[in-house]
Specification:
Elements: E1 2-3, E2 6-7, E3 12-14, E4 17-20, H1 22-34, H2 37-44, H3 48-61, E5 67-69, E6 78-80, H4 82-112, H5 121-124
Antiparallel strand pairs: 1-2, 3-4, 5-6
């Protein structure tokens, strides 16, 4: 999430795997909208394989599955579980709180930040 010049990226890890981050939250939202893992991947510009690997990682990292699937069929083959909805809502709320907490410090830093970087070291005089 970008807030002005600041990029905040919350991630939750399960051992060495990213259990949840902004991209996985986007994927959960797309699955909820599309009702299909492959359709969600297409909407997000992800390959079929990448989309399924991300869902598999999420499902393995949480206490229960975040996404339920039904084999076969062309549509309506995936849905968020109740835990999936809770994790998504809580993660999005966390992102919002992080942005709010950072706002004061961001204002101070943004006031000192140039709009564009200076040129090379020779041009800067260092």
């Amino acid at each position: 999430m970008r807030v002005g010049p600041l990029k905040l990226k919350a991630q939750l890890f399960c051992d060495g795997e990213t259990a949840m981050g902004p991209g996985k939250a986007d994927l959960l939202e797309a699955i909820d909208r599309e009702g299909s893992i492959s359709a969600a991947g297409r909407v997000l510009g992800m390959s079929y394989r990448r989309t399924w690997l991300l869902v598999d990682t999420m499902n393995r990292c949480w206490a229960e599955r975040l996404v339920d699937t039904v084999r076969g069929g062309n549509s309506g083959n995936a849905r968020l579980t109740p835990l999936g909805r809770d994790v998504l809502a809580t993660f999005r709320a966390l992102e919002e709180r992080l942005a709010a907490v950072a706002a004061d410090d961001l204002a101070t830093l943004a006031a000192l930040l140039r709009a564009h970087p200076l040129g090379t070291e020779e041009e800067v005089g260092e």
